[in-house]
Design a protein that fits this description.
With about 140 residues, this protein is of the alpha+beta class. The chain has 2 domains: about 30 residues; about 100 residues, Rieske [2Fe-2S] iron-sulphur domain (Rieske Iron-sulfur Protein, 3-layer Sandwich), CATH 2.102.10.10. Strands 2-3-4-9 form a 4-stranded antiparallel sheet, with no helix packed on it.
Length: about 140
């Protein structure tokens, strides 16, 4: 009798551990964002010196440009004022936040004006001459 009771308690314990492990797996699996890759063009579409191309993908706006042979993707909104779309000023060769007056270099680095900050860089992947940008990142 005691042996049957012991096996019953052990079975209950193993079942509970299994349920907890399953719950933890579901939480981790579905709460971690999966990378979303967006095709933005061919490598030859982004030549050095060209104006950045604004891409709008599922309400995520970002610029893609070639800076001295390096492909960059920059989130097109200032982190301090997310309602304002950062604009490209081709005459000065900088991005400008029209709400705060902040200026950014083509690399996304702070140049001057409003509060010091940088534009968020998005990961860029090149596969067989195709340019892909990962748009999953923490949003505010």
């Amino acid at each position: 009798m005691k042996l049957a009771r012991l096996f019953g308690c052990l079975g209950l314990f193993i079942g509970l551990v299994g349920l907890v492990a399953l719950f933890a797996w579901v939480v981790v699996r579905f709460s971690t964002p999966r990378p979303t890759l967006v095709f933005v063009g061919q490598v030859q579409d982004f030549l050095p010196g060209q104006a950045p191309r604004l891409i709008d993908q599922d309400s995520t706006r970002f610029y893609v440009l070639n800076v001295n042979g390096d492909l960059l993707a920059l989130y097109a909104r200032s982190l301090r004022h997310t309602r304002c779309l950062v604009n490209w000023d081709g005459a000065r060769g900088v991005f400008i936040d029209p709400c705060l007056g902040t200026r950014f270099l083509p690399t996304g680095e702070y140049q001057g004006g409003g509060p010091p900050q940088e534009l968020v860089q998005l990961p860029v992947q090149v596969k067989d001459s195709q340019v892909w940008v990962e748009i999953n990142f923490p949003k505010r």
